[in-house]
Design brief:
With 208 residues, the chain is of the alpha/beta class. Helices cover 26% and strands 27% of the residues. It has helices at 2-8, 83-91, 106-111, 171-193, 198-206, and strands at 16-17, 21-24, 34-45, 67-71, 96-103, 116-121, 130-135, 139-140, 149-150, 155-159, 162-166. Strands 1, 2, 3, 4, 5, 6, 7, 10 and 11 form a 9-stranded mixed beta sheet that branches. A two-stranded antiparallel sheet has the order 8-9. A hairpin with a 2-residue loop joins strand 10 (155-159) and strand 11. The chain starts with a helix and ends with a helix. The mean pLDDT is 96.
């Protein structure tokens, strides 16, 4: 519904971030849903010696209730997020993790019942190819088909359908729109159950 609200505001793709899939606590199943403000982590290739160097470990800086968003540079061959990171994130009260790249230690995340979304799964740690460089900076979605950015403080909403980014400055407008959209959908559903056509109920309740 957040995506529908963003679409009404002409936000490209309704804020949907393509290619990110629920892997834990179950793969594309269950009632898992996370909502929280983005804590971004930007990874860079190890060969990029000019990029900033992070002091300490990013995982120790995660605020309570935040959603980690890890941005991994392609190619996504090695994993940048594993079980120990989830253990620490959970202890700090994070809402979940979204990995724009590859994740590993799937069983460990699932055993902890911790929400993890990612592009792909693998076995090997990322240290030989990339490193965390900055936290809480805008990061671009690693996609060849979509231009999208995640900014620190944006709201990330994710479930088995995928991940939506709600820009912080649009949050109040979207929250105002959602009740009207829900009401229209409920009326459409009630009409369809009574045998009315989709064309009929959409025209009456959605204005089209």
């Amino acid at each position: 519904m957040v995506a529908d609200g963003l679409s009404r505001l002409k936000q490209p793709h309704g804020g949907f971030l393509e290619g990110l899939t629920l892997y834990s606590p179950q793969y594309q199943s269950g009632s898992t849903k996370i909502v929280g403000q983005a804590f971004t982590v930007k990874f860079v290739p190890v060969t990029n010696i000019k990029a900033p160097k992070l002091l300490g470990y990013y995982i120790d800086q995660v605020p309570s209730d935040a959603v980690l968003f890890l941005s991994q540079p392609p190619p996504h061959v090695n994993a940048v997020y594993g079980g120990l990171m989830t253990l620490r994130a959970q202890k700090l009260g994070a809402a979940g993790t979204v990995v724009d790249g590859r994740v590993r230690d799937l069983k460990e995340h699932r055993d902890l019942d911790f929400p993890v979304f990612a592009r792909v799964v693998g076995t090997t740690a990322g240290g030989e190819v990339c490193r965390p460089s900055e936290v809480n900076v805008p990061v671009r979605l690693s996609s060849t088909v979509q231009e999208a950015w995640v900014t620190p403080g944006d709201y990330l909403i994710a479930d088995l359908n995928g991940v939506v980014c709600l820009p912080q400055d649009l949050a109040e407008e979207v929250l105002d729109i959602i009740p009207k959209l829900l009401d229209a959908d409920e009326k459409c559903a009630a009409g369809i159950r009574k045998g009315r056509s989709v064309q009929d109920v959409f025209k009456e309740y959605r204005g089209r």
